[in-house]
Amino acid sequence: MVWINKVKEMLGIKSVRPYEFEEQDTLVLTPDDQVTSKEKIEKASVKTNPVTVKHKNHTTQSHKSETRKSLEKMTKVKIDELAQERFGVELDRRRTKEIMIDEFLTAQKKAK
Predict the structure, then answer these.
(1) pLDDT per residue over 54-87, tens digit each?
(2) Phi, psi for residue 8 in degrees, rounded to 5
């Protein structure tokens, strides 16, 4: 790399090196401009209210009631699994979806 710089100098090309900087003005603080660390903290601090986080109790969580419309969007398998999970009722998957929905809604009314 040294010979490249020598060739540039012979051709009159000025090389710019990353460590060659022009002089910059320096900032000098007077004693009046200096701030103590305590004043910095007071200026930067923001008063906030305490936050309380409460955990949800999953064992007492009540399920939302399913409607006919919401059940019609589900598959027969999903309806059967939901009935087993919530009410302990096993629906007959060989029957039509409409009959399964009726049985699910009946089980839901009994559970209330």
Answers:
(1) 766 655 456 788 999 999 999 999 999 999 999 9
(2) -60, -40
- Domain containing residue 105: 65-111
* Distance of alpha carbon 9 from alpha carbon 53, whole angstroms: 70
CA distance 111 to 87: 7
Number of domains in the chain: 1
Structural contact between residues 79 and 100, judged by C-beta atoms closer than 8 angstroms: yes
| CA-to-CA dists, residue 47 to 40, 42, 44, 52, 106, angstroms | 15, 10, 10, 16, 55
pLDDT digits (tens, 9 = 90+) for 3-60: 777 888 888 877 666 555 555 555 555 665 555 566 666 666 666 777 777 766 655 4
pTM score, two decimals?
0.46
d(CA 99, CA 101): 5
Do the domain assignments include residue 40? no
Distance CA 36, CA 76 (A): 71
